[in-house]
Amino acid sequence: MFRNLAINLLPLLLLLTGCSIEASLQDLAGLRGPKLPPGIDITNKQPIAGVVTDPSISDFAKSEILVGPTGKADGVTELQFAIQLMNSDNTVVAGYVPQFTVIKGLGTVPVVCTPSDDFGFSVCSIRSSEPGIKTLQVTNLGGFNAEKDLLFDAVVKEATRIVSSGGEVTVATHPSGWQMTGTVGSQFGSVVVEKNGYKLRLGAGGAAIE
């Protein structure tokens, strides 16, 4: 009976052993890695000497804020960046949630960071309604205060060009909730064309845009 049980369990044991060996080989080959926001390059990062889970024995001396592309200052879109929690002996801290504050720049809304993974990386986010440079500082890494600049680009508003019969050009921006009205010639609404919330009225005596 026990012999039959051992024979039946053998494929399962081989499968588990194979998975463990494959995972170890992936680690050695560098095929497995942290999940980071797009545009963040870690090819030149120092090798990890080990992983610790107790922040009380960590000095965070080699921690770093890593940023990618610029953000969009629309007050809604989140700009993601990463913080790697690394000690002076090249060990990383796993399971710790870093906190940060904005020490320069207006219109920002910080978002809570994720717990750091087995590579010491935590993913954080921030929103801004004002364009420009925002300087971040990590606040809970002991005596180590890492800082980094993030850039938010201004939002380009849509614009409509209205050209009158006399050659005069008017450029009107139309953020959400605004209404733009322009008239060329006399208004006769015999034909109406609607697109993107605007109406183009055409008639024998002129045209109007509403």
Automatic annotation (TrEMBL):
Keyword Signal applies: yes
Signal peptide residues on this chain, from the entry's feature table: 1-23
PROSITE patterns with a match to the protein in the record: PROKAR_LIPOPROTEIN
Keywords associated with the record: Signal
Protein name: Lipoprotein
Species per Swiss-Prot/TrEMBL record: Bdellovibrio bacteriovorus str. Tiberius
